[in-house]
Amino acid sequence: MKQFKKVLVANRGEIAIRVFRALNELGIVTVSIYSKEDRYALFRSKADESYPLNPDKGPIDAYLDIDTIIKIALNAGVDAIHPGYGFLSENPEFVDACEQNGITFIGPSSDIMRAMGDKISSKQIAIAADVPIIPGVDHAMKSYEEAAKIADMVGYPIMLKASNGGGGRGMRIVNDPADLEKEFNEARNESKKAFGDDMIFVEKYLKGPKHIEVQVIGDNYGNVVHLFDRDCSVQRRHQKVVEYAPAFTIPDETREKIFDAAIRLCKNVGYVNAGTLEFLVDRDNNPYFIEMNPRIQVEHTVSEMVTGIDIVQAQIMVAEGYALDSEEIHIKSQEDVTCNGYSIQTRVTSEDPANNFLPDTGEMTVYRSGSGNGIRLDGGCAYVGAVVSPHYDSLLVKIISHDRTFAGAVRKSERALQEMRIRGVKTNIPFLINVLNHPTFQSGQCYTTFIEETPELFR
Ligand code: ADP
C-alpha cells in the first residue's frame, strides 16, 4: 500500500473542490494549480497549497501543460495526481509522465487509456468482449466510397463520427445518400482541425434512443463491480443536462444485459479504477455500447447518492493499492453494492435559455443556495462576487437530490432550484425547472431527442 500524504489535483472549478473534499476526509494534504485567469477563483483557496501555472500559456493550455504540472508536483513533493474530468484526464502521455517521475496517476494505466482512448478502439475492445455495438464500421474510413458502402449496408439515416470527438462535438447525421460525399469530406476536415486527426467512421443513427451508462470500479487484483446505471437521456445538442440514477424505466432484463456487458468488458481489458461505459438503448430495448470514459464523470454524484459509495475516495484508495474488499474501500462483493432510492442531478449553468443558451459572463451579485433535506450541492463557481469568465465551461453548481421515490427526488430538485437565487449572470434555472415539471420527464420516458422536440421547455 502506498498511503498518499499529499495529492495534486490537475483541474479547476467544481471537480477540483470535489476531489479536495475526498482527500480531506482521508487526511491527505491537497495541492491546487491554477491559471492566471483563475487567480481569484475559489477552488484555489480550498486546497492546502496552491501554485500558479505558466501565465503565458492561456486559460486552457495552462491546464494542459504537462511539463509545468509535473514540475510543480515534484517541487511540492506530492505522491499522486488526480486529473478530474476534461483537460489531461484522458491523456496517456500525462499518465506516462507521472509514472516516469515516480508520481501515481489516480486512474487507469496509460495502456488501458490508449486502448479506450478513442471511439474506434473502444469499439474493437467491445467486439472482443462480445459486447453489442451499433451497426457500422470498427475502423477509420479511407474514402467516401467506403463510407457509402457501409451506409448503404446499415441503412440511412447514419451518423458520421470523429473517433476522437467528445463533448457532443464531431458528429453528423446524414439522412440522404446524396449528401454523404459532402458531409464526409467536411467531417474529415473538421475532425482534423478540432481533434488532430481525420479518423471518421459510420454507424447507424438510432432514432431517439435512451442514453444509459454504467459506473464501474476495478482494483489492481482483477476485481470489478458496477455501481448501477444512470439515465442521461436529457440532452441538448448531444450534451447532458439532467441525469439520474437508477435507469428505472429500462426493463430489468436490458439493465442486467448492460451490467453484464460492462463487467465483461472491464474484466477483459483488466480495467483498474473508476470508469463509465456508455450505451444507447433503442426503442426495442436493445442496448449498444458507444464508448468508455476512463475517468470520473460530472454525473458520478447520482451513483454516489444511491449506492452510498464515495467514488472519488474509492479512486484514491484503489490507486494506493487497496483491494475493493479491503476494510478501507469496503466493497465486499457485487452483492454488497445496493441501490437505495433515486437521485437526480441538474447542472446549473450561466447559459441564457432565452438567448439560444449563449454563455453569460460577469460578476455574481446575489447568490442564495437551495439546500435542505435530500439536497447536495457540488459547486465552487457560485458565490457573491464570483466572476464568471468566458474562458471555461459554464457550469456553476450541480444540484443533486436524493429521495426514496423518483417523484420525491423530482420535487426536491425542483424545490432547491426554486430556492436558488443568482443575480448578475443569467442562468438556465427556469429551463431546468420546466424540464423537471414536464410529465415526460416525471414518467422517466425521456429520449435523447426530448429537449429538441419539446418547445414548451423554453418558455
Ligand atoms: P461524446 O463523446 O461527444 O459525448 P457520444 O458518443 O458519447 O459522444 O454520444 C453523445 C450523444 O450523441 C449520445 O448520448 C446520443 O444522444 C448521441 N448519439 C451518439 N451516437 C448516436 C447514434 N449512433 N445514434 C443516435 N444518437 C447518437
Automatic annotation (TrEMBL):
Keywords: ATP-binding, Biotin, Gluconeogenesis, Ligase, Metal-binding, Multifunctional enzyme, Nucleotide-binding, Pyruvate. One of its GO terms (molecular function) is metal ion binding. The keyword Chaperone does not apply. The active site is at R295. Residues 3-456 form the Biotin carboxylation domain. Residues 123-320 form the ATP-grasp domain. ATP binds at K119, E203, H238. GO terms for cellular component: cytoplasm. Catalyzes a 2-step reaction, involving the ATP-dependent carboxylation of the covalently attached biotin in the first step and the transfer of the carboxyl group to pyruvate in the second. This is Pyruvate carboxylase. It comes from Dorea formicigenerans. The chain holds residues 1 to 459 of 1145 of the full protein.
